Structure formats: structure tokens, C-alpha cells
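User: Can you predict the 3D structure of Probable multidrug resistance protein NorM? Sequence below.
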Amino acid sequence: MTSDGDSVNHLAINQKQIRKDIMTIAWPVLIEVLLGSLFGMIDMMMLGKMPNQEIASASVAAVGMTNQPLYLGLSLIQALNIGGTAMIARYYGAKKYHRMESVLKHVMIIAMVFFAIPLAILGFIFAKPILSLMGAEPIALQTGLNYFRIIMVGFVFQAWNFTITAALRGIGQTKIPMKNNVIANFFNVIGNYVLIYGAFGFPALGVVGAGISTACANLLALILTFSYLLSGKSVIPFDLKKKFVFKKNIMLNFVSIGLPSAGEQLVLRLGVMTFLRIVSGLGTDVYAAHQIALSVLSLSFSPGQAFAITASSLVGKSLGEKSSNKAVRYARTISRLGIIFSCVMGVVFFVFGRDIASLYTGSPIIIQNTVIALSIVALIQPFQAHQLILTGVLRGAGDTVWTLISTFLGILVVRVSLGYLFVEVLALGLAGAWYAVLIDQLIRWAIIFGRFKTGKWKHIKIR
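Assistant: Sure. Here are the predicted C-alpha cells for Probable multidrug resistance protein NorM:
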């Protein structure tokens, strides 16, 4: 017997079974995030292909500027979910099922009362100064104002849906979130087509139509996911009639795991928003190209994100079973698979960059800048995927302090400072901005990889 309780059977786990466990959880998440990113790209393409090129470029830029403060709100929900997922996965492995319901209710109540509803109200009221702070030019500000307000209403539905799906993924139930979110995203694409262009007798609302469609899709996703939770089919018990009581141990876990995660997400979003403020100074056309590149980058996140979620679930469950050896084997196998996927995507972005850019816009200037950005995105792929997966491993173990450190140094220090140097001082344009992203990603990867190699994450205690 090893010091951490691993049995001989655990040490002799069949590699084929390891891969089977991984793919059982990963493939629904991969399909979900791939299609979600693809649908998001289609949304952006619809806006970019509107007849009036000036309005089209302003709409793409406005959506990008709106997304950043929205992501700041979602990042706080995500930080809360990271703590919840780590606890639920650990309790699931330890077969403490009664605790999973309590954790989920804590997450849902805290997310709604302290984050989603207050942030939605603030976003709705202060939409104009927020977009102005993001560097929106007059036409982008005018175009994006009502879109942002509508999106903030949908944020409430989106946040609550996120809390439930994170819990389901924590126990490996990934098919239900996949089905529900694919249905909602498909509804969103159809709604965008109808409301952006005015199909089937509906008014052509442009970017406002995209906002309405997105908010309705978020509501649909919540209804589908919450209905499943109430049906009793989930491994996580959920009884609305059962009296809810705040529990000290769960709240302490949220503090030890969730606070560093919240700090990480705040640093990430503040850094990204500051960076985008720098890029926005290059003009609307260049900023539109940057948003297109970010849209494509979100697609490239998909394999890494899917495998990161899988890693969090399987590592947390393994540690709950007192099998750290199995957790390490899951982490290494998932890393190899994720890197292979990401390298393939990198080749696609490098070879077909111009074709991809042409799907979004007919503007030669925007296409030219997008191609430059995508060539750098291609280089980022393997490091991005490995870093995402190992971050998922650490989060699944409840080791969130080092993810905060890596994000602070990479995003807030390196990306912002080098972005300013390359764009403002050396005048390297959009290419300079993306070189800063590349260097930031390399630094974050090195820090997270170093922490993983120490093995200290295996000994994090969850009460």
C-alpha cells in the first residue's frame, strides 16, 4: 500500500479503461463546446455580412466590446462553479451523495442573489459608460447600447444554467448539458437569422435582434436543464421542499477554492478588457479583425476546454476515491489527447486563414488583418490546450492559487504591458497585439506545468 492509500489494483489500471473513461465524459463536452463556438462564429458571420458594411463592422466591434464586461460577470459565476465542481466531484468519488445536493443549492443561491441579479441591474443601468470605457467609437457605441442591455437580462438565465451544468459535469453527466445547450444554440442561430435580417415577415433588427435571440436561447437552456434536475434522473438529488441551511464546511471550501478562482477570473477579465482597450485604438476595421480572430480562437479552445472539464471531473473523483495515482494517469492521458487535437486545429488555421476570414466579411482590410492574427493563433494552439487541461487538473483537485498566479503574471503583467509596447510604442499593429498574446500563453503554460510536476495538488484537502 502506498502512503496515499492507492491499492495495487489502482496502480494496475488498464490504459484502455482510462481512455474509455475520458472519452465517455469528453465527447459530449467536446461536441457541446465545438458547436457552441461554431454557432457563435455563425452569429458573428451573420452580423458581418449585413448589407451596410459600416454598420456590419460596427456591429461586430460592438458585440466584441459587449462580450468582455459580460464575460467578467460570467467569470465570477465560473469561479463559484469551480469550487462547487471540485466539491461535488470529490464527494461523488467518496460516495457522499447527500452533500452534493447541499453544495449545488449553495452555488445556485449565491450565484443568483450575490452575482447574477445585481450585475444584470448594474449592466442595464450603466450600459453606456461601460461601453465607452471599453473604447467604443461613436457608431459602435450607438449600435451596441441596446444589445448590451438585452444581453444583461439574458445573463441572469445564463448564470443559473451555468451553475447546474457545472455540477452535472462534475459527476461526469455531460450528455444532458450537451443536448440542452445544442438545442438552445440551434434556436439562437435560427432566431438570429430571423431577427437580424427580418426573415418571415419579422422586422430587421440587426444587432438588437441578435441580442433578443441570445437572451431567449439562454432562457430555453435554463428551462431544459432545470427540468432535468427536478425530474430526479440525475445522480445529484434535488428536492425543492427540503429545507436549505447554509453549512460552515461548504462555505469554508468556497472560500479556500472559490476566492482564488474569483481572483483569477477578475484578473483575467480586467487584463483582457485593458488589452482590448489598447487594440481598439487601432480603429474599427482592425478591431473587427481582432474580434474575428477571437471568435476563431474560441473555437480552438473547444478541445482544450472539453478535456479540461473532463480532467476536473475525473481527477476530483479519483482523489475522492483516495487514488492519486489514477488521477495522475488521467491527467497525462488527457494532456496527450488534447495536444493532438490542438495541433490539428493549428494547422487548419495556418493553412486556411484567408478562407476562414472570408466567411466573416468581404472587407479586404479586415481579411488581411485577420489572416495575420490567425497565423499567430495557430502557434498558440498546443501550449493553450496543455495549459487549459492542466488548469482543469488543478481545479479538480481544489488547487486554485497557482492558476491565479499564472493568470496574474501572464495576462495582467505580460499581455497588457507587451501589448502596449508592441502596439503603441513599436507600432506593430494587430500582429504586435497577438505576439503579446503568444508570449502570455507561453508563460502561463510554463507556470501551470511546473505546478503540476510538483505533485502537491494531489494533497489538497476538501472538508
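Residues 8-459 form one domain. Residues 53-93 form the longest helix (41 residues).
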